[in-house]
């Protein structure tokens, strides 16, 4: 049980996907202009990543490993994730329209989000079992959501700042991200995993 | 003509449309793998190979792929090449494989490759597509190397250490205390931010200079320029003072030197104008 909690804390804080692993920087810079949008994206990622962790685990250990096709995992996982995202989109539109209207626009962006493929590959690399994989996928996505929402809060304040002309746009954004990352690296001292 | 076309594709990919500094695509590997120059070049080389192969292949089959499923087909093609490159790196460069970790398989979801497939390879013949892949790949590698050079130099005081952290040429002497934060994630964001600011500054200055040059030329042609004008006979750029005094004094020695002067001025055009503006 303590193993599970260790995986959770490590994935959310010390090994945060954005600020220490650099998975999913594109949505982090792209959709973090408002906390509400950031939260929507984070929830969509959490939803997809939890399900895809289980799905890719099953595909790897039930199909690829018995057939000794482990080297095909990258191709297999990206196809599973793309199909899954499409399927989730269709399912939500049909059965849970309220959730679809909240997350719908973010779903197509998730296929090419490297956090989702990254978490699937980490699960295999670390040799997690099914429960651990799902917990890792869920908490890594939670860490992603936290990072993107926190940064959206910072970014909202930056609207009123007036940086030099060459720093306008992405440069000042990246420097702000650097400061937030510095704050997050404070968690690195707390060694939960290993 | 053909050659010019390839040259402009090349320049576009490496400089004017640089995937990292101008388009900000593929940020994850850019930030994660730039802790040392050798890691950056390893990552860049992998991306160049995948980009060229996938661009070639997608361009070859571009007429066979139905429009509705093209993105899915591109991803399958790209991940095939990525898997091949991953296995090759594992077999021949284990140190790079250990340093880059999951970022080799994650090339599959790197937006640069999908963007080139969609924007270029799906519309162009194989040869230009391969050149576009090479150029974009070199632009990516160059940008990564710049970032890595700054981070490695400030973070360790050395350059060109190999991927397993050994070797390297000491640039700063013993007095230098390595600024470790540049090797941490925070340093990655910081370095990239400052480098993009530098690129924006350079682009803005060159655009501004070009605009001033055009305004000066307009003024010159209309005859409103403060110190310069066109010689009514030859059409060359000369100083107003020269033209206006010539003829008043028949023994003016400048008459003979006029041609040389004008040539000199034509060459120096840009600088003189910059001062006047």
Describe this structure as you would to a colleague.
The complex is a heterodimer of chains A (194) and B (277). With 194 residues, chain A is mainly α. Chain A has one domain. In chain A, α4 packs antiparallel against α9, α5 packs across α8 and α8 runs antiparallel to α9. The longest helix of chain A has 30 residues. Chain A starts with a helix and ends in a 10-residue tail after the last helix. The C terminus of chain B is likely disordered. Chain B has two domains: 181 residues, no CATH class; 71 residues, no CATH class. A two-stranded antiparallel sheet of chain B has the order 1-2. In chain B, strands 3-4 form a two-stranded antiparallel sheet. Chain B is mainly alpha-helical. In chain B, 66% of the residues lie in helices and 4% in strands.
Task: Explain briefly what this protein structure is.
Chain A is an all-alpha fold and about 190 residues long.
- Mean pLDDT of chain B, nearest integer? 83
Q: What letter string, H or E per element, gives the SSE order of chain B? A: HHHHHHHEEHEEHH
Quote the beta fraction of chain A: under 5%
Average pLDDT level of chain A: 87
Assembly annotation: heterodimer
